[in-house]
Design brief:
Length: about 375
């Protein structure tokens, strides 16, 4: 029995094929022509259809056609080139940005453009000092970890804030330090479907502190007076006010979630003059971040503060005692109270202002009690 002849399977090795592809176009053409001529000269003439073929099929098995190698897919070629560049042990880790990642390039370009505008002064600031670009890209990014990961704020009823036009958001105030205003600002900024911004009215003390003054202006806060509030509402802004003021912020821990007096109803008069809705807001969780068990009035007078808080950790632990407790927060925006149905002279009616002020206060207080019953724990 004659020895079987071993026929090579497939085409020439991949490395030789890659080397041939790297040659110039002229070399490819001449090599292809020479190969075609040699193949034509050495290949025997095909038998005619009437004559049976005496030679066995030149394949791996009887009656089978020879198989050609499958071309490499683009992903396989890219992976092989990466392995050749980095080596088997230097492959990039999973999740690492690949070369030419457009998202990283875009972020870098946006960051450089932001710094260039900051240096050249090519950015806009409104008449109140509000810097929208700085607030969106820097200040909100600094507050957001406290909002999402530390206090784990849950927002309800964000749809009650109108998508356009002015509105007055009225909220309770507590927590010894005014962190509740900042959390409410992030809640509107990050959750409102129309991307609205909350412009808070702050007390005089905020604009007397050196660094806090500048940051508050940049973040869109302005003085808590009727003139500034009316100018913001005329421009169609969402204005936030906390009528309790320092009375609510510095109340003892034993009076937590009991609303203090809402002043003389100046916010209602402002809303009536411009016909904007009043949106009650209730915040649960802020009362427990600094449990105020005492108030040193002597130190408060010396420092010019409305109160000097004494908590279980401050001032006993020094700066560490100023760290707030990681309570679980809930912010709920209630049903808006319309004011556009009243006549223009309604803003001068003290009885109407008193009734509307009491209505807003009672709605906030009722929502606070409801949220307190629903929550499982102060911290969870």
């Amino acid at each position: 029995m004659a020895d079987a002849k071993v026929i090579p399977f497939g085409e020439e090795p991949r490395s030789r094929r890659a080397g041939r592809r790297a040659q110039g176009r002229g070399s490819k053409s001449s090599s292809a022509a020479a190969s075609s001529a040699a193949s034509s000269a050495s290949e025997p003439a095909s038998p005619s259809p009437s004559e049976p073929s005496s030679q066995p099929p030149s394949g791996p098995g009887p009656g089978r056609h020879s198989l050609s190698s499958v071309p490499e897919q683009p992903d396989a070629v890219e992976d092989r080139m990466t392995d050749e560049k980095h080596g088997p042990n230097d492959a990039p880790e999973p999740g690492a940005p690949r070369h030419g990642d457009s998202s990283w390039d875009r972020r870098l370009a946006e960051g450089l453009a932001f710094l260039r505008r900051r240096v050249t002064g090519d950015y806009e600031v409104d008449e109140f000092g509000y810097d929208k670009e700085l607030t969106d890209q820097v200040l909100m990014s600094l507050i957001r970890p406290l909002y999402e990961n530390y206090f784990r704020v849950e927002v309800k009823g964000i749809e009650n804030i109108p998508s356009d036009g002015g509105a007055l958001v009225v909220s309770n105030h507590s927590g010894t330090l005014p962190l509740d205003g900042l959390m409410m600002q992030v809640a509107v900024h990050d959750n409102h479907p129309a991307g609205r911004h909350l412009r808070l009215l702050a007390a005089d003390l905020v604009f007397m502190l050196p660094v806090v003054n500048e940051l508050a202006r940049k973040a869109g806060h302005t003085l808590a007076c009727a003139e500034d509030a009316e100018r913001l509402l005329e421009r169609g802004e969402i204005v936030g006010v906390m009528p309790e003021g320092f009375k609510g912020l510095g109340k003892p821990f034993g009076e937590r979630y009991k609303l203090q007096r809402f002043g003389r109803g100046g916010f209602v008069s402002t809303a009536l003059r411009h016909g904007v809705p009043i949106v009650p807001c209730s915040i649960v969780g802020a009362e427990e971040i600094y449990p105020m068990i005492g108030n040193s009035k002597t130190l408060a007078r010396l420092l010019g503060f409305p109160y000097f808080p004494i908590t279980p950790t401050f001032p006993w632990l020094g700066p560490l005692g100023a760290l707030p407790l990681p309570t679980k927060w809930t912010i709920q925006f209630g049903e808006p109270i319309p004011t556009d149905g009243y006549p223009p002279e309604a803003a001068e009616d003290p009885m109407l202002m008193f009734n509307l002020t009491d209505q807003v206060r009672e709605q906030i207080q009722h929502t606070l009690y409801k949220l307190l019953v629903q929550r499982r724990s102060v911290f969870f």
